[in-house]
Amino acid sequence: MDGGVPLTTVMCGYGEDIVSFLRFLEDDVRELARKLESSGEDMRTASRSLADTDAGRIGPPALSGRCDEFADSWDYGFGQLSELARGIGDVANNAADTFNVTDEDLERALREGGGAA
Question: Which residue ranges form the domains of the chain, and what is each CATH number?
Answer without folding.
Answer: 23-98 (1.10.287)
